[in-house]
Fold this sequence. Notes:
The complex is a heterodimer. By secondary structure, chain A is mainly α. Chain A has 26 helices and 6 strands. In chain A, strand 4 and strand 5 form a beta hairpin.
Amino acid sequence: MNDWVALGQFALNGLFTSSVYALVSLGLVIVFGVMKIGDFAQGAFYVLSSYLVFTVEQYAGLPYGIAALLAVAVIAAISWANGQLVYLPLRRVGIGQTFIGALGVLLVVISVLTLIFGTDAQTVASPWGSYTIRLGGIAISAQKALVIGAALVLIGVTAFLLRYTRWGKALRALSQNEEAAALTGVNPAATRGLAFVWAGVLVGVAGALMAPVWPFEATSGTLLVLKAFAITVIGMGRVRGVLLGALLVGLSETMVQAYWSAQFSDLIPFALLALVMLLRPQALGPDEGRSAPGAHQVQQAIRWPGTVYLALAAGLLVLLSPWWAQMDNFWLHLLILMGLNVIMVSSLDLLTGYAGIPSLAHAGFWGIGAYSYALLMMRWGWPFPAALLGAASISSGAALVVSLVGLRLRQHWTSFTFIVGVIITMLLTDFETVTGGPNGLIGVPAASFVLPGLGPIILNPFRDKLGYFYLVLALVLLVLWIKRRIVRSHMGQALVALREDEGLAQAVGVPTERYKVGVFVISCGLTGIAGGLFASYLTYLNPQFFTFEKSFNLLVMNLVGGSASLLGPVIGPAALTLFAEWTHAFNQSIAEIIFGLLLIWTLIYLPGGLIAGSRRIMRKIMPLAPASLPK
Amino acid sequence: MMTPLLETRRLSKQFGGLLALDELSFQVQRGEILGIVGHNGAGKSTLFHLITGFLRPTSGEILFEGHPVTAWPPYRRVRRGLAPTFQQTRLFYGLTVEENVRLGCFTQQRGGLRRFLLGTPHRERLTMQRRVNEILALTGLERFRAQPASQLSSYGYQRRLEVAIALGSGPKLLLLDEPFGGLSPSGIEEMGQLIQTLHDAGLTIMFIEHRMKSIWSYCSRLFVMSGGRLLIPQPAREALHASR
Ligand SMILES: Nc1ncnc2c1ncn2[C@@H]1O[C@H](COP(=O)(O)OP(=O)(O)OP(=O)(O)O)[C@@H](O)[C@H]1O
Ligand SMILES: [Mg+2]
């Protein structure tokens, strides 16, 4: 094969990849037009479509073509139902919530699929066997050619629908300006419904056609939908832009793999996205809004007596120490995990709850803290306290850079943090020489320090759980105290103003940019401490601990517990860590499913989280002080 | 002559092909109530946004108390004594009336490590509370202090809360963008009285209105704006004719 033929072959492969990206991105862009969110659930619907083909073929014995048509119809229906049952109610709560809800659906469907089909990859036989089309020296399998063909046809049909049908016109009007569209007689409900259906068709076709191409498993659609989302943003939410973006990403991925290295090729869409965000931030379409997850009610009249309360809690915990000492290791282990989650969620709450700045990169910064700690200890032999502080500082430093870049964007902040989270995980995985790559780091040193009067203390995380428990407890209390102080301080006022109305905050004299960067840096620094602790406790690290799923779980813990409070982010992680442990005992997937459903339910029906619920009950039991009643 | 409180020099603002402000120069003296009237799209709000720093001028200069503030971000101007409000009422809707006013007082509070560690000293907190109470009393919002701002019954109260928030920073110059807009006749009356009271307390006030009939009696000087220019300064009655 000479060079030119090889190039042609790669280009064709790139075109094939681009076709898949184009189909999924086109679905996303249609939903984005009417909802202003990235419909991540489509990633699960994509792979669900493959599984449907597999099931129908396998168990009903129907031929591939019919199985594929059935799958597409079912996916269209599911996509529609998802829009009606999840997105539309969530949208009334806020765009940030809808975004999180979409991720929730993605994770739930993946877990359901894992529960049913297990984690082994499945395959579907191609109806054309191994028949290959040849053009000169270039070859392509019949199924791949079909994917390209179907993509071209569906792109044409979509363009036609958008341009010439009433639905298409309504859709375009709706994505321009909702209120104006409603005035011109567009029926938003029907238009949205059809948008979900058509997105389902596109994604369903992609999934059904791809089933015979590559073996698939429940998570196969996740990276795909992340890339497709990146492509929709690169394409600035416009159909033509998205097609160009898909082509650009597909071709460059293939070329990079072919001529350079497969290692970083998955980063390409995100790198391109970062480039677009930096170069043309204003062109990226409508503002996502910086609405925080969790509706914020008016500050409660029942105030938890802050510092006193913390001091009492600390005292109680010390009093209970003989009881802890008798606890078996399993419970201590659980308490330690809870403590770590409490630190992370409390710091996240400072950001999302108080300042109204959502972040889907929190686990990433946690990971930066963990890896920094490990490397500072292992490579440079720093003492434990210094390494812990170093971890916090490095997380903060990374956060400083990220927030300075993110601030320039203004719009798309949530997506930006999401992508930052994905990139952090990828970097942890890809920089093998530093981070140990996918295998992670083994033999991270445990905590050891000198306490005045007690001499040097070395904690063995396997034997001395009690010691670790106290260490974590002390840091939890420290972090809660810091959070309390921040909330009560001048900065706390600035953050609330920022959350409620950024423009008005400036009008009352808040230097909003400075506080946005400041709170992000502080929040990530605190979570970096949790990262260091986590690394020292576990003694090994793996990039898979720090994925966006974990960030997502942290948000869930925050929302379920209740945001913008001291106790909510304690109750949430405590309850959900227990819950997760309990359900993991019988099945990991069921745990994830319940977790996701719980999240969506909370988002819609209990916007203030458990803490608000309990306050409502408290208020019934304990009527408010007369002074605070409206007269 | 004393330096004027506010001065603009050949201030222009271009939006794409549209010249919203055309080399506008004027001065505001301490103790005035300056009304600006003009038809829709005359550039009144644009002028306010330039003064408060939410927009940057295409060319020209803004001086506050003789200092050039043209490149300052809004929050610095607020600290210096400029208090903006918006044409579309903006409140901290998720918070109570009292908390709104407290946030309005943001620049009056101090941060720093000592306060962070030990909390705000008791005396400072008392002073702050007194300040909040005074503003609530002044704007007649005392009885709503515990109510969420989003549940303030009338638009008139919302408008007044907006003024109350702006007063928190202890401004020298208060900018009100159509404070009478959308108010009932009695609401207009009350807002007029509030402006008068603030003026008597020594505040300089600039406000915008596009129907001037109802308000010209409240101001000591009136500018008419049209097509990004000022027709300055005219006795109120003539201005009234000019705007027709
Ligand atoms: N951000 C902007 N981008 C583009 N054009 C703008 C922008 N803001 C204002 N304009 C235009 O500048 C002109 C002046 O607008 P401005 O809001 O200052 O008018 P106004 O006198 O306050 O009118 P109104 O009485 O309706 O409030 C208008 O033609 C408006 O369309
Ligand atoms: Mg205006």
